[in-house]
Amino acid sequence: MPSRQISRKVAFLIANILLQGWLFLLLVTLQLFWRYETRWSSVLRSDSLLITIGLLGVFCAILGVFMVREIIRMADVEEEARLQALQLEEAKEFNATLSAYRHDFLNHLQVIGGLIQLGKPQDAYEYLAEITAQLIGANKNRLVSQPEVEALLWKKKALAEEKGIRLQFNIRSNLGQAEISGLDLARILGNLLDNAIYAVKDLLPRDRIVTVSIEELEEGFRLAVHNWGPPIPVKLQRLIFERGFTTKGAEGNGLGLDIVATLVQKNRGKINLVSTEAEGTTFTVWLPRRDGNLAVTIWAGPGLWL
């Protein structure tokens, strides 16, 4: 359940307790009046005690409202902190990938510098030519044009293989003309892949398959992440995109799909979710080209659209 909803329930519970306390105090006071009517007759005529009780009730009401607002504010601060922590973790992963590239680059420079110091410029030239050829070949074989996304896909593939999960790529477009930054795209795919890998981790080995599909169609760019994990109940399909909602228990933070939905909306895209026993679960993200908008016809298909 989203933490904001939990905090609202706690806040209303506290307000209810304060109200019941006030009513209890009022009943006790009336009972005392009834028992000691003669002694309190002068007080009743002056209404001073009733005024005091009334002021106490107003104070309790104001205190209840303040506590409700404060609890909700603290919940919002906590959720924002969790979101920032998740973004920091994603940035650390990307930085680790860049550090690996930097390490390799420095090693190459050291080899070239060493060959030159040994008076072997020809060997240094051949070594540099070999590295250049490898880089050109790797560039031709790149899955997508954004280096952040490229690094993310291969890292997720390695992590999946460590868990006995096959991460398959069916990529027919390099997304070069997509109207989205590499960082936003990496965050979208990263969260969808994390969920898919989690969904299949406890399946039989033959069913531990996650497929990433990327293609360019007339309607726009289509990115899909499919897995054969347990289907998501229809009543939960919209809830899973709410911040704080998770089906992973203590292992989840309820931020991943909220981030996906926010980034897709920011980039003028659409999300589709189809999850059935027969078809498995597929999260599909549609993104526009730089020179156009998404075709309206795409969200006429089955499943949940956001």
UniProtKB/TrEMBL annotation:
Keywords: Kinase, Membrane, Phosphoprotein, Transferase, Transmembrane, Transmembrane helix, Two-component regulatory system
The enzyme's E.C. designation: 2.7.13.3
Entry annotated with the keyword Nucleus: no
GO molecular function, one term: phosphorelay sensor kinase activity
SMART domains according to UniProt: HATPase_c (SM00387)
Protein name: histidine kinase
InterPro entries, per database record: HATPase_C_sf, HATPase_dom, His_kinase_dom, Sig_transdc_His_kin-like_C, Sig_transdc_His_kin_SpoOB, SPOB_a
Superkingdom assignment: Bacteria
Record-annotated membrane-spanning stretches: 12-34, 49-68
Catalytic activity line of the entry: ATP + protein L-histidine = ADP + protein N-phospho-L-histidine
Organism whose genome encodes this protein: Carboxydocella sporoproducens DSM 16521
Histidine kinase domain residues: 159-291
